[in-house]
Amino acid sequence: MRKIYSIILITCALSKIILAQGTLEDYQRAEKFLHFNVYNLVQNLYLNANWIDKSSNFWYKTELENGHRFILVLPEKNEVKPAFSHQKLAELLENKLNEKMNPDSLPFSKIKFKDEMKTILFKVDTLNFKYEIKKNELSIYTPKKDELKKNESKSPDGKWIAFVKDYNLYLRDTKSKEEFQLTFDGMDRYDYASPISWYKTVDESKGDTYDPEIWVKWSPNSKKFVATKLDRRNAKKLYMYQSLPDSGMRAKVWSYERALPGEDLPLQEYYIFDVETKTNVKANLEPLEDLWAGFTPNWAEDSKTFYFAQMARYYKALGLYFIDSETGTVRNIIHEDANTMIEYQMVGCKLINNGEKVVWMSERDGWSHLYLYDGKTGELINQVTKGEFVVREINFIDEKNEIIYFTAGGVEKGRDPYYKHLYKINYDGSGMELLTPEDAEHEIQFSPDYKYFIDNYSRVDLKPKAVLRRLSDGKLIKELQESNIDKLIATGWKYPERFTVKARDGKTGLYGILQYPSTFNPRKKYPIINNSYSGPQAVNVPKSFRRGIWNDWAPLAEVGFLVMRIDGMGTAMRSKAFHDVSYKNLGDIGGPDHIAGIRQLAERYEYIDTTKIGIFGFSAGGYDAARAILKYPAFYKVAVASAGNHDHRMAKAWWPEQYMGEPGNHYIEQSNLTLAKNLKGKLLLIHGDMDNNVNPASSYRLAAELVKNNKDFDLIIIPNANHDLTWRSKYATRRRMDYFVEHLWGIKPPKEFEFKEYKK
């Protein structure tokens, strides 16, 4: 009898341990894994090279247990060493500042090498210091004031400053200070050299004021520059109502210019200005609509040709244009058409020999590839890359040896096709060679002379390492640093699990991650939460370690959930066919793939509880979360939608027009407002009232439809919060966590738990 009683006691104790979730202890542990606290537990996640002049020499800052040190790398000498004697400099600083100095924690984070690397400059508070390394001499100096205002741009040779004033362009001689007015017809909302700002907000009680910035593009020889004349006269506004202004009791109304799908866009005209003659020519093109076409307009190296790409409205056509800098004559070199849309991220271009040839990126054969064109005739010479992989970027062209360096994903079989690797290939498509062999995500920095590159490589389950390689053949020169994550591991934190499942078609491989709590027990059943972002411009699943820990799902896992991320069909960086699933079909949200993925994982792992499935997301992911619970009410039980763009008719024009085309009935059909009547589960909407990316009216309108249909839901408006509220607002993070604990676990969370940010 005593033995049976003991077994009952043990069983009861075990069931209590297994069932206890969402407790105060869980929240305290989750606090450690908030992104800003996790970063205090790791060191050297990424080596940022600071190149010295135009050489291959560079310095970087390496993190120590309680500080940092500066390291100098001389690739040509195969030498890595301290940039200076930290001990000697600390002693000199003690004398200058009359305070104790730790050589491992010098009070500055940036340095600048001068005098052939014999001297470094740095700043402590308001004091500027010059340290002569070999002489071991430290002095305070007053730097020459050469700060440009935001309405000014200096020529590469430093002789001229172009600036805008009273809607017009001016030129100033930096030596004589003589000024020349270059244009005279600029006017309010139709002015020169103004960059387009989608996010400038205006206090309507004061009205808009002219506070100019400048966008000009100088020719390499400093003799010319390009500027646009921007016509915003037909621009319309969106508004935000600030209930809690900085002062006073009256609410404020703010506005910002924002075209909605189908509305008039700002128009641009290109002008080329001659510095010596103080004249200009206008490019002989009709005014161009403000449509991002994939790369920044630029000059050929000989300063004779300016080139740019231009999309047609609704992104179904694209052209590459050359402007003659003397005459303004424009030639259309390359033209692309698409049955669906041309993805702006899959556009790339580099000139060879000042435009004699052109390397061009295109998805015309179903994959993003490189093509070589004759820049004079516009004729295709040959396709350079071929196969079922995705070229991501043209990085560098070695004209002498006729070699193209580029990044791509999906070449290496058996690896995650999203991992970026660096390759080289000959102009004719022969000799393709991998330069970054590790099975990982590679983040590349090239030396200014393109002799070497820094490779920061990692995975979500592989801590980062930074190495120096020779560009010509990828040869490893030096292992520079490896991250230290010992403190993170000591907390019990678990690497996310990478997984693959099949898409809705039963054939296509999908890639995702599953985050476990540090207290994971495989004998227990866990609700699963889908962290969704199906925006077709993005890859939602992180590939690098540093992005993998800068997240908002690990803390959620700590209170008793499995959290899943997956990239379903319709998202970026795969084949054109894979991507086009979302064209005119954003309402798909990859839902069938997410559901199929969860079901396959549940077959694989008995600890997944498919009766308790939640979803959350931010921005386009907020749209996903609300749509999922409205479209699949039998599958998703709880949803938290933050800053969701719930109706694409209200979104900034470029995004829905890129992926939904011209407005039509499909915009209405794919509005979350249309599905409001379907709500059965628990839905929380969160929005910042000063969100000038996704206007809060988007959530208000969905709320209105839910009210109209007599549906129970929850709504939180965060006062004075912008679009990044889920990263900046600890309150929003906690309320989202509470919502899942209460409605998936069915228990009351700790009341008003306050997340704290740890100091490093």
Describe the structure.
There is one protein chain. The protein has 760 residues and is of the alpha+beta class. Among the domains are: 18-42 and 504-745, Rossmann fold, CATH 3.40.50.1820; 50-140, no CATH class; 148-290. The chain contains 15 helices and 45 strands. It has an eight-stranded mixed β-sheet with strand order 38-39-41-40-42-43-44-45, with helices on both faces. Strand 38 and strand 39 (509-515) form a beta hairpin. The protein is globular, with a radius of gyration of 29 Å. Mean pLDDT is 95; it is low at 1-19.
What secondary-structure arrangement, pairings included, does this model have?
Layout: H1 2-19, H2 24-32, H3 35-38, E1 50-51, E2 58-64, E3 67-74, E4 79-82, H4 86-97, E5 112-114, E6 119-124, E7 127-132, E8 137-140, E9 152-154, E10 160-165, E11 168-173, E12 179-181, E13 190-192, E14 202-203, E15 216-218, E16 224-231, E17 237-242, E18 252-257, E19 267-274, E20 279-282, E21 288-289, E22 298-299, E23 305-311, E24 317-324, E25 330-337, E26 349-352, E27 357-362, E28 369-374, E29 380-383, E30 390-398, E31 403-409, E32 421-426, E33 433-434, E34 441-446, E35 452-459, E36 462-470, E37 476-482, H5 486-490, E38 497-502, E39 509-515, E40 526-531, H6 545-549, H7 554-558, E41 562-566, H8 576-580, H9 591-604, E42 608-618, H10 620-631, E43 638-642, H11 654-660, H12 665-669, E44 682-688, H13 697-708, E45 714-718, H14 725-728, H15 730-745
Parallel strand pairs: 40-41, 40-42, 42-43, 43-44, 44-45
Antiparallel strand pairs: 1-2, 2-3, 3-4, 5-6, 6-7, 7-8, 9-10, 10-11, 11-12, 13-16, 14-18, 15-16, 16-19, 17-18, 19-20, 19-21, 22-23, 23-24, 24-25, 26-27, 27-28, 28-29, 30-31, 31-32, 32-33, 34-35, 35-36, 36-37, 38-39, 39-41
